[in-house]
Structures are given as C-alpha cells and as structure tokens.
Amino acid sequence: MSSSLFDLTNKTAIITGGARGLGFAMSKALAAHGAKIALFDILSPVSDLSALRAEGVDVDYWKVDVTSKEDLEKAVDEVKAKWGTVDIVVCAAGVARDSPFLETSIETFEFQHKINTLGSYLTAQVAASRMDSTRGGSIIFIATLTSHQAAPAQRISAYAASKGAIRSLVPHLAMELAPLNIRVNSISPGYMMTDMVKGLEKKSVGGPVVFLASGAGGYVTGQDILVDGGVSKW
Ligand SMILES: NC(=O)c1ccc[n+]([C@@H]2O[C@H](COP(=O)([O-])OP(=O)(O)OC[C@H]3O[C@@H](n4cnc5c(N)ncnc54)[C@H](O)[C@@H]3O)[C@@H](O)[C@H]2O)c1
Questions:
Q1: How many angstroms separate the CA atoms of 73 and 129, rounded?
Q2: Residue-range domain boundaries for the chain
Q3: Three-state DSSP class for 40?
Q4: Which of 12, 146, 174, 184 is most buried per CB count within 10 Å?
Q5: Helix crossing, 157-177 with 119-128: angle to 10°?
Q6: What does CATH list as the number for 4-233?
Q7: Contact 187, 205 (CB under 8 A)
Q8: Residue nearest to atom 43 of ligand 1 (CA)
C-alpha cells in the first residue's frame, strides 16, 4: 500500500505519449499509487493493457494527436465521462530530430515545435479547463536536460528550443492556474549514457512524477526538476 502522502487513489491521470517509452513508464508509476490511467497517443500502446488490468490497474487508451485541440477536447471529455474527474496531466508526447543547426529546415523545426511545444500547451489548456478547483490538479510537462545544456553527442538545437519553451511556460501557467488550485511543474530527464544505466532512467522518472502528482508535492509549483543522475553537475 502506498503512503498516504503519495496516494493517488480516486485520481485520474492523463498521460500523453503514454503508449510507450517514458510516458508508459510514468503511467505505470502513477498506477502503482492508485491512479486511473488514460493513455493518449497517436500510436496504440506497445504493451498489452490487459496485463496491467489483470494487476488491478484501471487503464484505457485514446487515440489522440496532441496537435489537434479537437482530438484533445473529445478525449478529455470522454475521460471525464468515464471516471468523473481529470486530476493529473503528464505531457510526455514528444519527438526529437538529430539535425545540425546549419542544415535544419523550417519543416524540421516546425515539426518538433508543433508536437513538443504547441501539443503540450494545448494538452495543458484543455485539461486545465476541465479540472475541478475544489479537488485541485497537477500538470507535469516533460522537458529535457538538453534544454539546460548542450549534448556533445547530438545536434538537437530545434528540439532543445522546443523544450526550453516548455520550461518557460511553467512559471507563467503556475501563476495563472494557482487560483484554480492547479500546480504546474516540469521534469527534465537526462539520457541513458551507457548500457550500465540503461533502464534506470525509466525508473527514476517514475518517482518525480508521482511526487509532483501527489500530495507529497502539494506545495511545489512553477518548478523544473532535473532528473539526470547528476550529469549536469560534473
Ligand atoms: N528518452 C530520453 O532520453 C528523454 C530525455 C529527455 C526528455 N525526453 C522526453 O520524454 C518524452 C518521452 O520520450 P521517449 O524517449 O519515451 O520517446 P518515445 O518516442 O518512446 O515516446 C514518445 C511518444 O509520443 C508519441 N507522440 C508523438 N507525436 C505525438 C502526437 N502528435 N500526438 C500524440 N502522441 C504523440 C509517440 O507516438 C510516442 O509514443 C518526450 O517528450 C521526450 O522529449 C526523453
């Protein structure tokens, strides 16, 4: 049983980009603390949801393109109709293109900004407008370590800028949504450096997302949490 500080029973969480990768890993972490899970993605979930359901997880999938406000409104309304509330939103849908700055096209730049920045913005906007201020809410954006510092192994300026925009949104939305009792934060994950740490990152984003989603993070808003194993510090 989870400690009451981290308890998410009777909470509904929407996770965009939840069909695989970090989004799916964070969904499992939230579910482990009792949250009902709505996976929003353009892809079908890579894992069999019936296995999760057999473990007692209340989980469902909606085909949603986060760049479509219409898709988002329809799906968030269906989540509310199914489970009654929307309490937690994790904006993890994202794309990254390795592309040297001098060769990056407008299309490559716009593709990443449309999904990463506009998609996250719309997701937060639609979800926040449907949250219940008497229950409160938590919006969690997924930024990246590479919006804080360059990554020598990659050429990802347009991607980094799209995620830097996410971090800039956080204090503004935190301020505007505080009267509605909605907290807004971001997580900046690092990347897997070697086989030795492969998989650890997926686990390590689970803790911070549960913290920010739950009462344990109840006085935390407007922040970015770097989850990089210390890489940015030495
Ligand atoms: N993996 C890393 O090392 C790392 C590091 C820092 C940040 N991130 C961020 O974490 C998030 C998840 O990354 P990941 O590594 O799990 O990637 P991933 O490619 O495995 O997952 C991204 C998901 O987003 C979905 N998606 C893409 N476009 C979409 C759209 N228009 N509408 C709905 N869903 C869409 C994809 O279908 C996919 O399921 C991303 O935002 C990424 O930028 C990842």
A1: 10
A2: 4-233
A3: strand
A4: 184
A5: 20
A6: 3.40.50.720
A7: yes
A8: 94
